[in-house]
Design goal:
The complex is a heterodimer. Among the domains of chain A are: about 50 residues; about 100 residues, Alpha-Beta Plaits (2-Layer Sandwich); about 100 residues, Alpha-Beta Plaits. Chain A is about 60% helix and about 15% strand. In chain A, the strands form two sheets. In chain A, strands 2-3-1-4 form a four-stranded antiparallel β-sheet. A four-stranded antiparallel β-sheet of chain A has the order 6-7-5-8, sandwiched between helices. The radius of gyration of chain A is 31 Å and the shape is extended. Chain B has one domain: Orthogonal Bundle (Arc Repressor Mutant, subunit A). In chain B, helix 1 packs across helix 2. The longest helix of chain B has 27 residues. At the A-B interface, helix 2 and helix 3 of A face helix 2 and helix 3 of B.
Amino acid sequence: MKNAIKRLISLYPQPWRSRYESEFNALLDDVPPTWGTFFNVFGGAMKMQFKTGRSWKIVSACALAGVIAGVALTWTIPHRYVSTAIIEMGDIGDAKINAVARTILSRAPLTRLIVEADLYRDLRATTPIEEIVERLTQDIRIQRAGGKQFVAVSVVASDAERAQKAAQILAADFLDAKVGTLVDPASLPVSPNGPRLSRNVVIGLLAGVVSGSLFALFAGLKVWKLAAGLGIAGAIAGAAVAFAMPERFASAAVLRYDGSPAGMAQLVAAVTGDASLRDVVQRLQLYPGEAGAERTLREHLHIEPVGNGRAISIRFDDRNRYVAQKVVADVVSRVIDQAVRSRSELRLVELLDPASLPLHPYSPKREMMAGAGFFAGLLCAVLLGVWGRFKRPFPAAAA
Amino acid sequence: MTRNNDPALLVLASLADGDKHGYAMMEDIERFSGVKLGPGTLYGAITRLEESGWIAPVPSEDRRQPYTLTPVGRKSLENELSMLDSVLKTAMKRLKHA
């Protein structure tokens, strides 16, 4: 143990060793060789490195740590495989293709796809299907390829066979809608396309260089303890504020609309008119005893065109998740009723996604608030450190 | 503000009654304050104090290097202790009257 402790002297900066090594060695001969001594000498070496070591050493150490973290991250992230099917569309226009894509990517077909292709098997055991559907939409790409007449349908999955099967199912859905002919069936991916080691290493390297440079820049300010303290205090304050805020749940539904923008505007205006909203408030007994209930309802109800005006998104948020869902379902039925009344509009409206039951609050975003508090604390500490540096430089005050 | 377990202050206090080498300082500090300084902490403080000119090495034939308080260091220690004494007296007085 004594030898191990003495070897730690080599971690001290060279200028320090040339001045103190001999006497420090003599001291280490006298003190009992314990783990406490070991860590104390190690900590002393690190502090001295940061105090007197040259910045490039710190930057190099941080860059190396970043590279190691990048490699470690690559190992821990599961592989991702991409399978792609190519469909020839001929002279079928974007509007028709988008309409089919919207139908295929709505909740019910995607739920079926998850089950049939056995996607996210582990995740399905712990996560609500709605969240998995949301995630699947990010793992599917439908885009023009090789000129206007082709569409590429790609699916990313955790193994090659599942990716291929999912892409085959999606391609079959396109073919069922009679909007194209299959040119290239879904390929079986040979190698994973992610995670990318080189990219993670470069990101780790850059992050290490940046953080190391910052650390080297501020190491002399003796501000790190303060930064850690204020950062943690900020995170706790942010989290406390977030937990004190009431939770709000958002429910949403999507309707396909193939009519004109003017027709959509009329539809929305009729549904969001005072009389209609008053009726919603009364039917669902919203905001009991609260004056201006319609106004509150209007503030939290968002009806807007999506998908280049080819669909209507209806979204409502409330403290009660069931109320949020009921309001959206009610507004959806009003849009459809309105379309029924003006018969010409009826064929233009179709419910793609029914009102969802929100499982998690969309507000407050607790992790984000805690993170913001943490970084605000760090920033305060750095500013205090810079201010203190100019106010009372060390060791000038000692002289 | 200097804390009562500030290694630099403890080293200065230890050297106030005579020159000492590192291990003697560690034992002395533990005796009068109960604080057990590790070698890394002790030499961190010695480095800072020597850079500031508050302590200086004393020529010695031994591998163990003794240090002494410089006049500037003595003056700084007196100032520091006088401030601590004032804080101590005020706090005691307030505690009695609380």
